[in-house]
Automatic annotation (TrEMBL):
This is PAS domain S-box protein. Residues 78-133 form the PAC domain. Residues 126-150 are annotated as: Disordered. Residues 141-150 have a biased composition (Pro residues). It comes from the Bacteria. One of its GO terms (biological process) is regulation of DNA-templated transcription.
Length: 150
């Protein structure tokens, strides 16, 4: 393994965020240890599998439309943006993940596939929802039938 390959290996295995690379067919080719931790699938279980492994069934159609559109156009509308979405775990749970995406190209500019960087956003999403609910309750007009408190 040359120095650059060794460095790339160390970065992928030691980074705290999940790194998932899929080829142009949507088959997982890179699945780092943080992806194992986040989603619960070992590398052996994930490598070579469809991205459907972690995409909730009701989101799959939209995902694949966007995936194929990005490959065909050579660009993704989500480039440079992190989005919060849902994902499936090996235990069957649905979690919120913050993901950023990019197309990966070879030296000639040909698209090789897509990379996603992900982190768990489940607690963050719960805090945001609770805050939204509190704000809605504070902004709601007073109930005219409620007893007045001095």
């Amino acid at each position: 393994m040359n120095a650059n390959a060794a460095l790339s290996h160390h970065v992928l295995t030691q980074i705290a965020d999940a790194v998932i690379f899929s080829d142009c067919e949507g088959k997982i080719q890179i699945w780092n240890p943080a992806a194992e931790t986040l989603f619960g699938f070992s590398s052996d279980a994930a490598l070579g599998q469809s991205l459907d492994l972690i995409i909730p069934e009701r989101l799959r159609a939209a995902h694949w439309v966007g995936f194929h559109r990005a490959l065909a156009s050579g660009q993704t509308r989500l480039a440079g943006k992190a989005v919060i979405t849902r994902a499936c775990t090996a235990a069957g749970a649905t979690i919120y993940v913050e993901m950023s995406f990019a197309l990966v190209r070879d030296a000639h500019g040909e698209v090789l596939g897509s990379v996603a960087i992900a982190r768990d956003a489940t607690e963050r999403r719960a805090r945001e929802r609770a805050l939204q609910q509190r704000m809605s309750a504070l902004e709601a007009p007073p109930d005219p039938g409620a007893p007045h408190k001095p």
